[in-house]
Structure formats: structure tokens, C-alpha cells
Amino acid sequence: MKKVLWFSAGIAVGFVLAHQLNQTAQGKKAFGSIEAKVKDFSDAFVEGYHERESELRSALSGSTNSGATK
To answer: Would residue 49 count as lying in a domain?
Structure first.
């Protein structure tokens, strides 16, 4: 129970500090940079997921995906 309390307190303090940091110009710039990097990563992940899913579906159906082979 004590660990849960400390964990919750840490999360709360983190949110408060992040909120205060976001009120400054440097903080907004830092969070904007982080947000852009996370978006780029998630877009690349989704693109790779769909590409691989397409490859697997093609392999299961016995057709080739635009003539590309590996």
C-alpha cells in the first residue's frame, strides 16, 4: 500500500511540474519538440505495421505484392 501511495504522489508531482513548465516559453518549445518526435515515431510505426500486415495478407492469399520478393 505504501508503494502505491508513493507512486501516486510521484505521478501527481510530475503532472504539477509539467504543467508549470508548460507555462514558460522554453517549456512550450520543449513539449512541442517532444510532441513532434512522438508523432513522427507513431506515424512510422503505423506505416510499418500496415506494410507488414499487407505483406502477411499477400503471403497467406498466395499473391505477390506488386512483384516485390524477399
So the answer is: yes
Number of domains in the chain: 1
Are the C-beta atoms of residues 42 and 34 closer than 8 Å to each other? no
Which residue in this structure is represented by grid cell 501511495?
Answer: 5
Q: Determine the structural domain holding residue 24 and report its residue range.
A: 2-59
Sign, CA dihedral 13-16-22-26, equals negative
- Residues contacting residue 22 through CB under 8 Å, at least 6 positions apart: 28, 31
Write out the chain's pLDDT in tens, 70 residues: 999 999 999 999 999 999 999 999 999 999 999 999 999 999 999 999 999 999 999 999 985 555 555 5
> pTM (2 decimals)?
0.61
